[in-house]
Amino acid sequence: MKVAPSILTANFIRLEDELKSIEEGSDYIHVDVMDGHFVPNISFGPAIVSQIGELTKLPMDIHLMVEHPLDWIDKVIFPTTEFITIHAECNRFKESIRRILYLGKKAGLAIKPSTDVDFIKPYLSQLDLVLVMGVEPGYGGQLFIQNQLKKIEELAQLKEENGYHYEIQVDGGINVSTAKQVKDAGATIVVAGTFIFNYEDRKERIESLK
Ligand SMILES: O=C(CO)[C@@H](O)[C@H](O)COP(=O)(O)O
């Protein structure tokens, strides 16, 4: 299981130390950009994403929770940007996937808890990552919605049957118990915020998820 700590829950006053504290054992840093429209919350914009990229050697896994991703994608292309994930529920998501791939980055597509896998089936062959939200996007610290496990199983089956290459990422409500459940269902990357950043021993927390 790959682990991507979500920087949303970190203490931004001590950003550099927070980033250093999760480097060992992590595979990516998950960076949530929120515009206050697609989700009710506002996080930070491209200037902070750029600084995060400079402060850690971890590749950035950028999750755009924004209504108009085409206005944002070009602004979050940095040397360490690995994935850019946009939502299937946002505006012009098909063009957005094309734009991410055109710019040479890996493309992810996220689905909210109420969106079915059927809706994104036609695009799966192009994707490097599918993100199944375990909670309603917008805030850390929520409980994992159990019926999302079926979607992970469905995505794992479609991947196997068709030889697709996407990672199956799960974000929201991840702890040791839900990480085991999503792994058994077929997830390959977990994103965790409060489970890692609300505790002193981050290395131990990351290892427990792996
Ligand atoms: O995208 C989001 C929330 O919308 C997440 O990345 C959260 O930051 C995860 O937080 P926890 O549920 O792990 O506390």
Question: Would you mind describing this structure in some detail?
Answer:
With 210 residues, the chain is α/β, with parallel strands linked by helices. It has a single domain (2-209), classed as TIM Barrel, CATH 3.20.20. It is built from seven helices and eight strands, in the order βαβαββαββαβαβαα. The protein has helices at 15-23, 46-55, 93-102, 149-162, 176-185, 194-197, 202-209; strands spanning 2-5, 29-34, 60-65, 81-87, 106-111, 129-133, 167-171, 189-192. The protein has an eight-stranded parallel sheet. 5-O-phosphono-D-xylulose (5SP) is lined by residues 6, 8-9, 30, 32, 63, 135, 137-142, 171-174, 191-195. Belongs to the ribulose-phosphate 3-epimerase family. Its EC number is 5.1.3.1. Its cofactor is Zn(2+); a divalent metal cation; Mn(2+); Fe(2+).
